[in-house]
Amino acid sequence: MIHVLATIELAEGVREKFLGEFHRIISIVRDEDGCIEYGPAIDLKTSVSTGEARDNVVTVIEKWSSVPALEAHLKAPHMASYRDRVKDMIRDVKIQVLAQA
Fold first, then answer.
1. How far apart, in Å, are the Cα atoms of 43 and each of 13, 27, 46, 70?
2. Tens of pLDDT along 41-89?
3. Rounded CA gap, 22 and 7, in Å?
4. Is residue 59 a contact partner of residue 8, using CB atoms and an 8 Å limit?
5. Cβ neighbours of 10 (radius 10 Å)
6. Which helix or strand (DSSP H or E) is residue 57 part of?
C-alpha cells in the first residue's frame, strides 16, 4: 500500500468552487481498482496546529494498493475532465508518494 498527499494551492477565493468540482469525482475515484481511501481536507486551526490555517489550500489524502493503481488513476478519463474543469483555479500542486514504514 502507498499513501499520497497532494497539496493543492488555489487562486484566491475559489476554494468552495474547487471543492464542489472535487466532490463530483470522489465516488468515481473510490470505485477505481486499487483505491483504498480518497478525500479532500482543509487546514483546521487548533491549539496543536503549527503555522497559520491556509485558506487557499486543499490537501487530498489518498491510499492506493500500488503505484500502478495510482498511475492508472492519473490517466483515467474522468481525471482528465476534472483537471480541465479546475485548471484555472489551481496555482500549484505538490504530490508526495509515501511507502508505509
1. 15, 23, 9, 25
2. 999 999 999 888 999 999 999 999 999 999 999 999 999 999 999 999 9
3. 13
4. yes
5. 20
6. strand 57-64
pLDDT of residue 21: 98
Q: Hey, what's the cell of 2?
A: 502507498
- DSSP H or E run through 78: helix 77-86
- Give dist(CA 90, CA 12) in Å, integer: 10
Q: What is the reported pTM?
A: 0.94
Please give the full DSSP string across 26-45, using - where no structure is assigned: HHHHHTSTTEEEEEEE----
Give, as one character, the DSSP assignment of residue 47.
Answer: T
Exposed (0-12), middle (13-18) or buried (19+): which is 101, by Cβ within 10 Å?
exposed
Sheet with strand 2-10: strands edge to edge? 35-41, 57-64, 2-10, 90-99
